[in-house]
Amino acid sequence: MEDIKNKIEELRKTLEYHSYRYYVLDNPEIPDSEYDKLMKELEKLEKKYPEYFDPNSPTQRVGGAPLKEFNQVRHNVPMLSLQDVFSFEELKDWDRRVRSELSEVEYVVELKIDGLSVCLSYENGVLKTAATRGDGVVGEDVTQNVRTIKSVPLKINYLNPLEVRGEVYMPKDAFEKLNIQREEMEEPLFANPRNAAAGSLRQLDPKITAQRKLDIFIFNIQRIEGKDFESHSDALEFLSSLGFKVSPKRIICSNIDEVIKSIQELGEMRGELPFEIDGIVIKVNNLKDREKLGQTAKAPRWAVAYKYPAEKKKTKLIDIIVQVGRTGAITPTAILEPVRIAGSTVSRATLHNEDYIRQKDIRIGDSVIIQKAGDIIPEVVEVVFEERDGDEVIFNMPTKCPECGGDVVREEGEVAVRCTNMSCPAQIKRSIIHFASRDAMNIEGLGPQIVALLLDNGLIKDAADLYYLNFDDVVKLERMGKKSTENLLKAIENSKQNDIDKLIFALGIRYVGSKTAKNLAKAFKSIDNLMKATFEDLTTVEEVGDKMAQSINAFFKEEHNRALIERLRNAGVNFTLKEQEGTSDLFNGLTFVLTGTLSKYTRNEATELIEKFGGKVSSSVSKKTNYLLCGEDAGSKLKKAQDLGVKIISEDDFEKMVNEGELL
Known about the structure:
By secondary structure, the chain is α+β, with helices and mostly antiparallel strands. It is built from 24 helices and 24 strands. It has five domains: about 1-60, Helix Hairpins (Orthogonal Bundle), CATH 1.10.287.610; about 75-305, D-amino Acid Aminotransferase, Chain A, domain 1; about 310-395, CATH 2.40.50.140; about 425-570, 5' to 3' exonuclease, C-terminal subdomain (DNA polymerase, domain 1); about 590-660, BRCT domain (Rossmann fold), CATH 3.40.50. β23, α23 and β24 (about 645-650) form a beta-alpha-beta unit.
């Protein structure tokens, strides 16, 4: 067994080394395929020998269980903001104030990464907590999410307490890919990488964060015990030696003229950087000089941020096209004469909606000013009216859906024009993906790629067709072997037994979320009753307002939607509310934590049962935890529960409590 332990530790060290080469130094020594092979070998050994589980193993960066909420963290050292300057004259004024206090000064010029500031705390060489800046004094605990960032070292070769500050960001290429995916799903696009990074870091499900390809640069030591530094640049070199990815392209300057020259040079290469910056940070290098200069309540006096002016370019608006999303929203997009701005070539820009076009009086053929103030998505700032020659064409939103020819509507108080036909070809793929998603019909294995495969081969045309698939047709498809086909068809068959709140949400009725779907299910007891409900009936349901009631009525009046529902009924999909057995408040006030692999329930099913009986599920074990529901291959949560004296129950115990209505 000692050989196995040594092999596991050797693999972890090897993977950590190559991860550091790839994610921190950007200089890999082995191909991705070799790295993946080592990772799979480690995963296999850790699964076979769970006694050697280590939460800091490279295999644990995929993200843990979803969080219910973020806990607050009080910073040991306040995370101050920086004073901004917008001209070289303002920068020189700041320099004069610094030199009035110091006889000699040395500056460090650094890129101001456009992301989200976090503090990482290490104890005994292990990452303990990661917290957002918040208000500078109190932030949010985002440790689970930060652990998924590959360039964050989970262990370092320094055992004394250490706190560092860094900027979490999303690289440009990752941002562009994310927005393409969101556009396909008709989800709101992120305006820029900073918004994307902030939204990704604050996901309650760490697995989503892990998919977002976040990165980090460390730019300061907040607190350290057992070591002193003379300068900020020395401190960064020390952090680099520990394996941190530190602030790149640092330039040491002896006067403000050198600082200005560096700002200009960095500005010229700004567009070529693989990440966004929103300025340059200038810091006094000597740490004792920083103490002498001090700070205000909000910002240090020894540092300042120079903000680059927004880059604008003129180009021609060649055409305006429209695209139809999952919920039928018809979105106008500007097609532009390609223009290079902020380091990339722009050929299109979103125009949001009809009102946006009218307010700016944007016409086809106009010369327009495009702005890209650090944002990946360009914005039409204004029209160059003096260049109009009379040939420009006023754009009108279509009165018929460009995909299916159906009527389009713009509801009162809304800015979007929509097609309400669920069978509209442009909406089908996205609506089926939504139908099969976890919070909807939860058809495991039916992701976007399989949906596209079924559509491209003509096996389905809408969500109802899923229930009429046969084995012989599916198994012939590329990537669909016998086992995967059997599993997919079994998952589709099992989904027929879902309670109707799942089906209501799966239908994709505008404004109806999963929580409202549960309220509608309880109120009307069946899909048929919901279809017959009047506007007045609907508005008596909790959280259903006038707009939602109108949307529900409109959905069920649409002939295509009614036909789809009838085909779901004929396929045997459950249309009536299942009566909940047992005592609804059995778990009232109790907190559960789930760990290990459950065999009788999926995690979602167990969570839903606990919540239906009045309890709540937490992601971490604490003194407030009442029960640890433990499956196979339990990890560190089991040990912590044992240490805290938390009651540990098996799936059989849990099932007994649910069926008999009594606590153990």
